[in-house]
Design brief:
CATH class of the largest domain: Alpha Beta
Number of domains: 2
Radius of gyration: 20 Å
Largest sheet: 9 strands, parallel
Shape: globular
């Protein structure tokens, strides 16, 4: 599974911000043509994003533009402007049902054909932002092999539910939606990606927010400011202490296996199959991150 710890939003109508973003190291750039762009700037954003795709791609991170929703009437022009060899995927806002995914995938397939690209080459990250989408979350996650991750949009979700957006994210409806998305993503074998943290100057708050997201099952998070990228990357990466402990867990378990036992203990804690699976998964994640950084 591809590593997507940090996905950096950049307003698509701001060429200076797109240029500046290239100096940072997210796992994915998300030049945005949707919510960060006013209606009067949609065409300009489309042109600016299209003109920056090759430069963003050359940096080495994934390039996953966010397009406007099916309901907006803008998505076909957005896709036509960006689908090509310079992008890795499409982030699509305000998905409601699996049928939305089918329609978007068909549009991308037609454009891939025109660009002489292999069908299915462009990945897809849908946004779950409404009560309807939460109810249909698993169907959405499994609607297309293009889907590599699913994103939660807390701002639009709380608006749709008619509930106050709280700074500590203690809204009970929000917790249910986040848990539902993470479980559906895991069942579908894709990444759960968390909503942005909008207090971009509050690094301590961001760290708490990411820690809570990790406990829920999210594997990455969108950033709205370049300064958020490094803290998000750190938070979703195993620490040296965690890596060393995981190695000790695996070594202890393998020693127990050689002795004909199916479990053992380490520092007073039982080490059995589920525990060693978690340790091996953490080591695999650490190795993948290291390889990605080298390459």
């Amino acid at each position: 599974m591809r590593i997507l710890r940090s996905l950096l939003f950049i307003p698509g109508n701001k060429p200076n911000m797109l240029d500046k973003a290239m100096g940072f190291d997210p796992d994915a750039y998300v030049p945005d043509m949707e919510d960060s762009v006013p209606e009067s700037e949609k065409q300009n954003a489309r042109n600016v994003v299209a003109s920056h795709l090759q430069k963003l791609k050359a940096v080495g991170a994934l390039v996953i533009p966010r397009v406007n929703s099916l309901q907006s009437g803008l998505i076909e022009a957005d896709l036509a402007a960006v689908v090509g060899a310079s992008i890795d995927g499409i982030s699509a806002g305000k998905i409601r049902t699996a049928q939305d995914i089918h329609e978007i995938s068909d549009l991308i397939t037609d454009l891939e054909s025109k660009q002489q690209m292999a069908p299915g080459q462009i990945s897809l990250i849908p946004w779950i932002e409404t009560a309807q989408a939460v109810v249909h979350c698993h169907e959405i996650c499994t609607a297309s092999p293009r889907i590599i991750g699913v994103a939660f949009g807390a701002e639009d979700f709380t608006h749709d539910m008619g509930i106050e957006r709280l700074g500590d994210e203690s809204e009970s409806g929000l917790a249910f939606a986040r848990n539902t998305l993470c479980i559906a993503a895991r069942a579908a074998g894709i990444l759960a990606l968390d909503t942005p943290y909008f207090k971009f100057k509050d690094e301590t708050g961001l760290e708490r927010n990411v820690a809570a997201a990790k406990r829920c099952g999210f594997k990455g998070k969108f950033a709205i400011h370049p300064a958020q990228v490094a803290p998000i990357n750190r938070a979703f990466s195993p620490t040296p202490t965690e890596i060393e402990h995981a190695r000790r867990v695996v070594a202890a378990f393998e020693q127990a296996e050689r002795s004909g036992r199916g479990s053992t203990s380490l520092e007073g804690n039982v080490i059995d199959v589920p525990v060693v699976k978690r340790a091996r998964a953490l080591l695999e994640l650490a190795g993948t991150i290291t390889e990605s950084n080298v390459n």
